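INTERNAL AUDIT FORM
Audit reference: QA-55
Scope: verify that the stored structure record matches its stored sequence.
Auditor: D.O.
Record contents follow.
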Amino acid sequence: MPITLADIAARADVSLSTVSRVLNNKEHVSLGTRNAVLEAVSTLGYTRQDARREGNLETVILFVHEGSAVRASDGTMAQDMERAIVAGVQSTLHAEGYHTQLVHKQFGKTKNFELPRVSNLVGAISVGSISNPHLLRKMIEDGVPTVIAGSPSPDIPLDSVTLDFRGAMLEIVQHLKETGRRTIGMVNGPPLAGSTLARIHAFRLALAMHDLPFTSEQVVSGTFSFSSGDATTHELLAACPQVDAILYGDDDMAVGGLRALRGMGRTVPNDIAVVGMFNYEIATFTDPPLTSVDFDKRELGRAAAQRLMMRLHVKEGPPWSITLPTQLIVRASA
């Protein structure tokens, strides 16, 4: 039976990633660890030719939404954003010699599932703002290092890379107040999205810091889609007709909101200012062009990949939460 990297890792009591770094003469491995790996290699009779066998590639699973545009050019702008994050992850991991495999799941729905059969699985990255908590807990139970490239679940102790929603909300509310808005509504994302809770907390804090009113009628929830943005805009204005600005959970929702407002005879931005989030390409093509919150999508993926590689070398220790900056891109809608 052929000797594998897993055999070496078990004998040297190190991770698969550490074995790979030693065999490829990479940095960030202590002398003691390097010697332990090389001793295991010698004892087991493992050769460098064996190490290059295709079956011994270290693999990182990327969990993405089922039907994601990561594998298709059509779909919503949100899926295009996810594809950009994955590109950042893959470029970083591939440069360090890791193999990546996409796994599509219906996040938030599946409780019972089997992890894919992957040779030399060393880690995983969950991409997007909606994660399956059952899946994440399964990864923890199985001891698979996992990073969330999106919004973390507050009760699941995993490394994550997310956005500075507090800074984004403060910038949005300040801009809207400076342009004369006083009653700001929010069309938030679905409860399953980790960013939903972060946004509402940041929104309420920003309103309080700028001495602007807040009632529960100012917030409604929907899904990240054009049709939901349309429907929830009607819902929001029925509950809170005095709203003079609306912040949407993403740009797809905002596009639906623009249609709804036009249908109700409300002009943008004169009657109601509109702000989206994530600055999808469509934001420059709406009428009027959409004010939105931007961030470096590929950098989010790169940061998640870098954090995972750090975790592969130092498995112990509390999880990190890495926060990336955002920027408000002001256009004619607000």
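Auditor finding: record pair retrieved intact. The first strand starts at residue 59 and ends at 65.
Action required: none
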